[in-house]
Amino acid sequence: MSQDQEHLKLLSIFHYVVGGLAALFSMFPVLHLVIGLGLATGSFEEADPMAQTMGWFFTVFAGGMILAGLGFACCLVLAGRSLARRRNYTFCLVMAGVSCMFMPFGTVLGVFTIIILVRDSVKALFEGQNPSAEPEASV
Q1: pTM (predicted TM-score)
Q2: 34 pLDDT exceeds 60?
Q3: Comparing 42 with 31, which gets the higher pLDDT?
Q4: Angle between helices 105-117 and 3-25 (to 10 degrees)
Q5: What is the secondary structure of 63-75 as a DSSP string?
Q6: Which sign does the torsion angle of CA 2, 7, 8, 13 carry?
Q7: DSSP one-letter string for 39-100
Q8: 1, 5, 80, 84 - which has most CB atoms within 10 Å?
Q9: In what helix (H) or strand (E) does residue 39 lie, and over which residues does it extend?
């Protein structure tokens, strides 16, 4: 196995791991979601209109954060799968850039993924070419 193939295999595994961590961290707003639902439905106190409004705000905001985090985690896992199959080069490169915002793990993963993906030999692997073959001369 070539060095580039080994690097892509390791990056794929690390994408799965960071995707799992992102999914775990995206569940932190569940506490806000539960509190928001309790306030919105009046479970904690009498039906105060201001408390219900704040409850719905908590619920919508927390739900949005959870969905965004899980979406990001799914995209990281899909990028890891694409790296393993050497498909969707552009998607993998974009996800490497986006993962840099997930500090510190995503930053390290994103930087190393970008470094590996910009190599010409890795681009050739994604295109299905033999990286050791000489390019054809154009006439």
Answers
A1: 0.84
A2: yes
A3: 31
A4: 150
A5: HHHHHHHHHHHHH
A6: positive
A7: HHHTSSSS--HHHHHHHHHHHHHHHHHHHHHHHHHHHHHHHHHHHHHT--HHHHHHHHHHHT
A8: 80
A9: helix 30-41
Calculate mean pLDDT across residues 29-45: 88
The average pLDDT across 100-106 equals 93
3-state secondary structure of 138: coil
**Both structure tokens of 67:** 């969905």
Amino acid found at 32: H
Instruction: Say which DSSP state 136 is in.
Output: P
> Residue 29 and residue 62: Cα distance in Å, rounded?
5
Averaged pLDDT for residues 119-130: 85
Q: Using CA atoms, how far apart are residues 80 and 65, in angstroms rounded to an integer? A: 23
Report, as an integer, the average pLDDT of 12-17.
97
Helix (H) or strand (E) holding 6, with range, is: helix 3-25
CA distances 29 to 62, 84, 87, 132, Å, are 5, 32, 34, 49
Give the chain's largest Cα–Cα span: 82
In this structure, what token pair is assigned to residue 54? 């704040």
The token pair that represents 2 in the structure block: 């070539």
Q: 62 to each of 66, 73, 90, 97, 127, how far by Cα in Å?
A: 6, 16, 31, 25, 41
